[in-house]
C-alpha cells in the first residue's frame, strides 16, 4: 500500500519540479567570439520567467569547453570606470525577464584553455531548486566597444 503512494508522491514531485523549470525559457543567447589565445569571454541571453514564482539562477556550467571558471557577473560604471563584480545568484522575477547583455549582467568565462572552435556550446543553468536546464549558445561576433573587462 505504501509503495504506490510513495511512487505517486515521487512522480508528483518530479512533475512539479519539471513544470517550474519549464516556466523559464531563454532567447537571444550568444557567446562572444574571441581571437585564439584570448583568456576570457562572456555569454549573453534573455531569461524569461512565465511562472508565478521567482526563479533563482545559482550557477552556469559549460561542459564542452576547458575553462578555469564560469561566473555570473554584473558590470556597472562607477566614477567613469567600468567595474565588474561576481554575483552569487541571479533572480528572475515572476512573470518577468532578465537580460544578460554587454555592459550589464553576463556570464563570464575566465581562463579559457582552448580556442572557441565550435559554432555553439551547451551551457547548463543550475537553479536554486536544484533543477538544471540546458541551452545551446551560438558563438557570435559582438561589438567589443560595448563591453570592456577590467579584471
Automatic annotation (TrEMBL):
<dbReference type="Pfam" id="PF04314">
    <property type="entry name" value="PCuAC"/>
</dbReference>
<dbReference type="InterPro" id="IPR058248">
    <property type="entry name" value="Lxx211020-like"/>
</dbReference>
<feature type="signal peptide">
    <location>
        <begin position="1"/>
        <end position="22"/>
    </location>
</feature>
<protein>
    <submittedName>
        <fullName>Copper chaperone PCu(A)C</fullName>
    </submittedName>
</protein>
<dbReference type="InterPro" id="IPR007410">
    <property type="entry name" value="LpqE-like"/>
</dbReference>
<dbReference type="InterPro" id="IPR036182">
    <property type="entry name" value="PCuAC_sf"/>
</dbReference>
<keyword id="KW-0732">Signal</keyword>
Amino acid at each position: 500500500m505504501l509503495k504506490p503512494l510513495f511512487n505517486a508522491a515521487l512522480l508528483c514531485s518530479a512533475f512539479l519540479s519539471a513544470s517550474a523549470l519549464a516556466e523559464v525559457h531563454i532567447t537571444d543567447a550568444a557567446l562572444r567570439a574571441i581571437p585564439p589565445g584570448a583568456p576570457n569571454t562572456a555569454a549573453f541571453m534573455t531569461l524569461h520567467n512565465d511562472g508565478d514564482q521567482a526563479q533563482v539562477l545559482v550557477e552556469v556550467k559549460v561542459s564542452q569547453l576547458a575553462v578555469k571558471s564560469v561566473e555570473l557577473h554584473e558590470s556597472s560604471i562607477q566614477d567613469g570606470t567600468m567595474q565588474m563584480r561576481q554575483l552569487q545568484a541571479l533572480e528572475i522575477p515572476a512573470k518577468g525577464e532578465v537580460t544578460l547583455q554587454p555592459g550589464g549582467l553576463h556570464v563570464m568565462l575566465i581562463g579559457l584553455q582552448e580556442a572557441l572552435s565550435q559554432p555553439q556550446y551547451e551551457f547548463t543553468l543550475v537553479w536554486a531548486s536544484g533543477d538544471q536546464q540546458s541551452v545551446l549558445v551560438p558563438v557570435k561576433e559582438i561589438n567589443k566597444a560595448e563591453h570592456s573587462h577590467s579584471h
